[in-house]
Automatic annotation (TrEMBL):
Catalytic activity: guanosine(527) in 16S rRNA + S-adenosyl-L-methionine = N(7)-methylguanosine(527) in 16S rRNA + S-adenosyl-L-homocysteine
EC category name: transferase
Keywords from the UniProt entry: Cytoplasm, Methyltransferase, rRNA processing, S-adenosyl-L-methionine, Transferase
Annotated family: Belongs to the methyltransferase superfamily. RNA methyltransferase RsmG family.
NCBIfam families: rsmG_gidB
Function: Specifically methylates the N7 position of guanine in position 527 of 16S rRNA.
Domain of life: Bacteria
Name of this chain's protein: Ribosomal RNA small subunit methyltransferase G
Length: 215
């Protein structure tokens, strides 16, 4: 089975639809990672089939839980999950925040080659980044433990009753991180829900930790 068929089957297994054109762009993005990986060491995963499952489908698996029109991807690396989300949700503005210079250069190139008009690349540390408008979702995939994520990126969430959310993508259920987070959590944040995530073709546990900002 070729990559296009694997992608289409994986998206179907996730339970939603993505246009054929967007799927083509997702495959182009995967090819860009492979091309740049030799020099920029974007990911330790080398096989295209493994990249598809562990990176692209893993990123798309959280799509049903992404609400709002402004997304920040903290520690974006190769653009995960930000670029797959930006491709699947062209109505959203997505900020890719990455402090590694080489990876930030790749993100700029991907933005240009994939014609991602809804993507902004922020080359710098998240704690030094401030936006004129807060974000509905601030997501991280492999950035830090939960307590540091809230400490460093919490300021990016929208304030108020309809405040933004931090969405931390984790593997196995993070018991220790959650205990540390709850011990240090500031009053304006609350662990809203912990969602098990099933990723097609991936025999591994995945969880999404949703943390809401109220004030």
């Amino acid at each position: 089975m070729n990559l296009a068929s694997r992608l289409n089957d994986g998206i179907s297994a996730l339970g939603f639809a993505i246009s054929e054109q967007t799927q083509t762009h997702l495959l182009q993005y995967l090819a860009l990672i492979q091309k740049w990986n030799h020099v920029h060491n974007l990911t330790a995963v080398r096989e295209p089939e493994a990249m598809l499952a562990r990176h692209v489908l893993d990123s798309l698996a959280i799509l049903p839980y992404i609400a709002g029109e402004r997304i920040a991807d903290v520690g974006s690396g190769a653009g995960l999950p930000g670029i797959p989300l930006a491709l699947a949700r062209p109505d959203c503005h997505v900020a890719l925040i990455e402090s590694n210079h080489k990876k930030a250069i790749f993100l700029q190139q991907a933005r240009i080659e994939l014609k991602l008009k809804n993507v902004e690349v922020v080359a710098g540390r998240v704690e030094n980044f401030s936006a004129a408008e807060g974000f509905d979702i601030v997501v991280s995939r492999a950035f830090s433990d939960l307590a540091d994520f809230v400490k460093l990126a919490g300021h990016l969430c929208k304030h108020g009753d309809d405040g933004g959310r931090l969405a931390a993508m984790k593997g196995i259920y993070p018991h220790e991180e959650l205990a540390q987070l709850r011990a240090e959590l500031k009053p304006q944040f609350i662990v809203e829900k912990i969602l098990p995530i099933a990723v097609p073709s991936l025999e591994a546990e995945r969880h999404l930790i949703m943390i809401k900002r109220y004030v």
